[in-house]
Amino acid sequence: MSPAFTFLVPNNPMLVGASLDVQGADMDGGGLITLTDNDLEIEAASPPPASANMVAIPAGTFLMGSPPGSLVVVPEEQPAHLVTITRPFWIGKYEVTQAEYQAVMGSNPSYHQGASYPNSASRPVEQVSWYDAVLYCSLLTMQEDAAGRLATGYEYRLPTEAEWEYCCRAGTTTDWNVGNFLTCVEANFDQCVGQTSTVGSYPANPWGLHDTHGNVWEWCFDSWDFSANYPAGPVSDPFVNFLSSGPFLVFRGGSWPSFFINTRSAYRFGYFPSYAWSDLGFRVVCAPILNVPAR
User: Fold this and answer.
1) Cβ-based neighbours of 154, under 8 Å, separated by 6 or more
2) Statement to judge: residues 192 and 115 lie in one domain
3) Domain carrying residue 17
4) DSSP state of 181
5) What is the pLDDT of residues 110-146, one digit of tens each?
6) Which terminal residue of the chain, N or C, has fewer Cβ atoms less than 10 Å from its own Cβ?
7) Closest Cα partner for 203 from 96, 126, 94?
8) 265 near 182, Cβ under 8 Å?
9) Is 104 part of any domain?
């Protein structure tokens, strides 16, 4: 009798309910499994063990930026261009919580904590700078690598701007991943609540991610000079090296006091990496290592 095993697959709607007579299975050094069913191959991977709250994201191509016909079209979000993410990765189902940050960093800088803010341990950490977020990811990487739980060639880090929008859109092409408008039933923004919410308080997007619109802004890996710097043609795995550009670092998604226009999937903003506000946090990915040249 052939051995049997079970694992999770990326959240691809085309796979829901599928039944395969698998002819072969191969796993590479990064933990990527390739299933072969006659002439069909499907790539799948189980979540990294650092957290049960990680979602597997398949490789794929999407349209990044705001195409003509969007509710708001600004130069910084154009031209809309095809981006291919060439390798699967994992991303946090939720924004990093105060409890998770405390466990790794030994401190909690958040404004929304204490008796006045119930369930603060499960609210997103905020008042973190880009440097703080990068340090958190570095310490988490070392922790998981030392425990032998990190796939070869992968690290915990901030998502690139392209990875973030890919995950936020989750296959959608509308201004928000919920459609062409956003309401207080769907996200925490524009003083709907007036403070942060417990992560997961609102419905997930099609790939199972919560709070990609609103709650807190989320730092990304890339730097930005606020120019319209999108490429004119298709690209693969893009990111803007913070050692060669700037002076700002990108954050995405909007936050609890943000006007709804600023929570769109394509909306870009950023500031100096040392800044920290009560509506600025982050989400982590476990993804292929980005080769950043030394200064």
Assistant:
1) 30, 31, 48, 89, 286, 287, 288, 289
2) yes
3) 1-46
4) -
5) 999 999 999 999 999 999 999 999 999 999 999 999 9
6) N
7) 94
8) no
9) yes
Q: In which order are the strands placed within the sheet that holds 60-64?
A: 60-64, 81-85, 235-236
Joined tokens for residue 149: 């739980």
**Strand runs labelled E in 78-196:** 81-85, 89-92, 154-157
Both 26 and 71 in one domain: the answer is no
Q: pLDDT by residue (tens digit) across 145-165?
A: 998 888 889 999 999 999 999
Q: Classify burial at 272, counting beta carbons within 10 Å of its beta carbon; exposed 0-12, middle 13-18, buried 19 or more.
A: exposed
Q: Are 236 and 163 in contact (CB under 8 A)?
A: no
Q: What is the pTM of this model?
A: 0.85
CB atoms within 10 A of CB 67: 15
Which residues neighbour 47 within 8 Å (Cβ) at sequence distance 6 or greater? Answer: 8, 54, 55, 56, 90
Q: How many domains does the chain have?
A: 2
Task: Tell whether 109 and 222 lie within a shared domain.
Answer: yes
Show the tokens assigned to 199.
């992560």
Distance CA 13, CA 295 (A): 43
d(CA 184, CA 259): 12
Q: How far apart are CA 270 and CA 272, in angstroms?
A: 7
Residue 183 contacts residue 189 (beta carbons within 8 Å):
no
How far apart, in whole angstroms, are the C-alpha atoms of residue 48 and residue 56?
Answer: 9
How many degrees, rounded to 5, is the angle at CA 139 between CA 137 and CA 142? 110
pLDDT in tens, 53-111: 999 999 999 999 998 889 998 999 999 999 999 999 999 999 999 999 999 999 999 99
